[in-house]
Design a protein that fits this description.
It is globular, with a radius of gyration of 22 Å. It has 2 domains: 198 residues, Ribonuclease H-like superfamily/Ribonuclease H (Nucleotidyltransferase, domain 5, 2-Layer Sandwich), CATH 3.30.420; 85 residues, no CATH class. Strand 1 and strand 2 form a beta hairpin. It has 325 residues and is α/β, with parallel strands linked by helices. It comes from Anaeromyces robustus. GO terms for molecular function: nucleic acid binding.
């Protein structure tokens, strides 16, 4: 697996210190390229797509404030555009981390309806489409599933053709540009697609559709770069299960480290919590794609690394001490 790090055909953001991560990210990129090819060349023009977006209250993501969608086909024919403001949470406004554009829908008229009514409309429209498209779509799908939206028929297109599929524009971006995926705003700017009033669910759904077409129109599966990446062999000793275990442990350590930082700050008042110093794009842009982002730094997030704690038992004792301070 170590040999992959010296392969110049692999984009730099794919290469990680840990070989398991490098292999996992390379497989993901190869699947992104295959997904872009499937969308462009294997899904025919008779199929219908729905571009979906949700907005939540920035201080409590359980408060779903907006839902927007656009139904269209590959000929760019728009069949339906919808923007709903959720009546139960209409009094909650964003503005600190994301723009407050709830009442700035660019197309047709926004409708304020109870969540149960919006659910019924969306469930009905989902029956008529073959593919769901979205920027940061897994977040939107998670939000909608929690609220009873029926998405059981749809599967993520991860390099494999699906009759009913989920297409992430961030995957298409990676498959097209071979770069770390970026937010919708930055993606639209990169493709010179004009936009206004983002962070309105109806507008975001519409511009995600435009972004979708911008990414697939010029995609070429037989480009030299695509073929070089697709022909890189994944080492035989790589096992996805090993990566999953590694990633779970990494998340556990990072979570524990953050707990220590918070406890240390609250109880000793001499440990600086840097969480609020991070850019909005990294931590608060719900459209941003974190699949390839490596917040984990071995030197920083080793067990107790920030505090010089050498093992889990000592770390647990430290946490226990301040939990009952």
């Amino acid at each position: 697996m170590e040999k992959l790090k010296n392969n110049r055909d692999i984009p730099g953001y794919i290469i990680k210190t840990n070989s398991l991560e490098t292999c996992h990210n390379l497989i993901r990129l190869q699947n992104n390229i295959k997904t872009a090819n499937i969308v462009k060349n294997f899904i025919d023009s008779s199929k219908k797509f729905i571009s979906l977006d949700t907005e939540s209250y920035e201080y409590n993501h359980d408060y779903l404030t907006e839902v927007g969608w656009v139904i269209f086909d590959k000929t760019k024919r728009i069949i339906k555009k919808k923007h709903f403001i959720i009546q139960e949470y209409s009094a909650f406004h964003n503005g600190k981390y994301v723009e407050d554009n709830k009442y700035n829908y660019n197309f047709e008229v926004s409708e304020t309806k109870p969540l149960i009514i919006v659910k019924n409309f969306l469930n009905e429209d989902l029956k008529s489409v073959n593919y769901i498209v979205g920027q940061g779509i897994n977040n939107d799908i998670s939000d909608l599933k929690k609220r009873g939206i029926n998405l059981t028929e749809f599967e993520e297109i991860n390099g494999t053709y699906k009759r009913k599929g989920i297409i992430g524009t961030q995957d298409l971006f990676a498959g097209y540009f071979h770069e770390r995926p970026i937010s919708l705003k930055k993606g639209l700017e990169k493709l010179s697609i004009p936009y206004r009033n983002l962070h309105n669910a109806g507008n975001d759904a519409y511009y995600t559709m435009k972004y979708f077409f911008g990414l697939i129109e010029n995609f070429k599966i037989y480009s030299v770069k695509n073929q070089k990446i697709l022909h890189i062999k994944i080492p035989g000793d790589y096992k996805e299960q090993d990566y999953i275990k590694y990633n779970e442990e990494k998340k556990r350590l990072r979570k524990k480290e953050k707990e220590i930082k918070k406890l240390y700050k609250n109880n000793k008042n001499n440990y600086r919590n840097n969480d609020n110093d991070n850019d909005y794009d990294d931590f608060y842009d719900y459209d941003d794609y974190d699949c390839y982002k490596d917040y984990f730094d071995d030197s920083q997030y080793g067990i107790g690394g920030l505090l010089g704690i050498s093992d889990d038992d000592e770390l647990d004792r430290y946490i226990a001490e301040y939990c009952f301070y």
